[in-house]
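Narrative of activities, Objective 1.

The group set out to show that a structural description can be obtained from nothing but a protein's sequence at a throughput compatible with the screening campaign. Below is one input-output pair from the validation batch, recorded exactly as produced.
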Amino acid sequence: MTIKWSPILHWISLIAAMLGIVAFLGASIVALTSNPILGLSEEHLFNDTASFFLMSIAFGIGTIIHMKLEK
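Output recorded for this entry:
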């Protein structure tokens, strides 16, 4: 029995997108209040947002590829 990778990659993509949303909300809060959250600056949180969204897109593409291969 082989492991189906598409559900695993789908969940990783979803989690990365959720973390991106949380990082964006954190960056927005820091921008409005000028108080770093957990020592993270606004620029750092915006960079995290971009990284998490790019990871989400990459894992989403991987999900599509693996779904096609698993048929």
